[in-house]
TrEMBL record:
<dbReference type="InterPro" id="IPR036291">
    <property type="entry name" value="NAD(P)-bd_dom_sf"/>
</dbReference>
<dbReference type="Pfam" id="PF09176">
    <property type="entry name" value="Mpt_N"/>
</dbReference>
<protein>
    <submittedName>
        <fullName>Methylene-tetrahydromethanopterin dehydrogenase</fullName>
    </submittedName>
</protein>
<feature type="domain" description="Methylene-tetrahydromethanopterin dehydrogenase N-terminal">
    <location>
        <begin position="10"/>
        <end position="90"/>
    </location>
</feature>
<dbReference type="InterPro" id="IPR037089">
    <property type="entry name" value="Methyl-teptahyd_DH_N_sf"/>
</dbReference>
<dbReference type="InterPro" id="IPR046346">
    <property type="entry name" value="Aminoacid_DH-like_N_sf"/>
</dbReference>
<dbReference type="InterPro" id="IPR015259">
    <property type="entry name" value="Methyl-teptahyd_DH_N"/>
</dbReference>
<dbReference type="GO" id="GO:0016491">
    <property type="term" value="F:oxidoreductase activity"/>
</dbReference>
<keyword id="KW-0560">Oxidoreductase</keyword>
Amino acid sequence: MLTPLKQMSPFDVNMALDAGFDAVVPYVDVSLGDVTSLVQDAIFSRPPDAGVNTGIFIAGRDVSLSLDMFDAAKKAMVPPFQVSVFADPAGSFTTAAAMVAKVEKALENKFQRGLKDTAVAIFGATGVVGFCTAVIAAREGADVTIVGHDGLARVEKIAAEIKNRFDVQVKPADGSSDARKKAIVQASDVVLSAAKAGVQVISKAHLEGADRLLVGADVNAVPPAGIEGLAVHANANPLEATKAVGIGPLAIGNVKYKVESGLFKKMIEADKTVTFDFQDAFSLAREFAK
């Protein structure tokens, strides 16, 4: 397990062990420049037909850095010497995949529509989960708006990075006032809260009059809820003060857990080396979302 941080997440260590890995070895304070040598040390330590018995996990809290580390790990392979690689910085890939998959399923079941051409506003979009959620939803054809609680500067940079890295378009929006937030909510079919734990970004006042709104989802399990009135266990249940349905963090978290565990198990069970990023996480999340 490679992380640029000073500590590896105990969550990811436990997930890997519970999935069936015999040993998990964290490497901390890993720079992008360290990745190639570490990966090549790993690939040359076993004969080519045993490379599948080693997996590299990319952690951290910076999506862009983690994706760069993921790419560096893949480029470090010297066929036939290869190992498997899985990236999930701060659980953001699997969490975002789970949230979008649950929203997609709610749209299908409750409103007989998909994500394509659906107006999706992401609050807390400057974080790792918000970034990944924006990319996944945009790739599925949604009309994605990423909302900056402190103005446009940071979300404009994120929108530009998403365009450059993934060639999908997302729109930045200023959510620095209650009036601006309310206008964004009223113009959306789906609102997603990906803000930090314990931070409420959407209140009932913001939801009032949002007649267009179909689904609200929140990944924050620490009170107060990211979306006021949205219960932690909500699973496409009515959302207070609206005609929409809500998806709470426990419903999303249940899928996230299955996805991360499932990808670790796929690494273990694979006959050939595999690589997993957020798109693979989303494909698996769709299988678990109900």
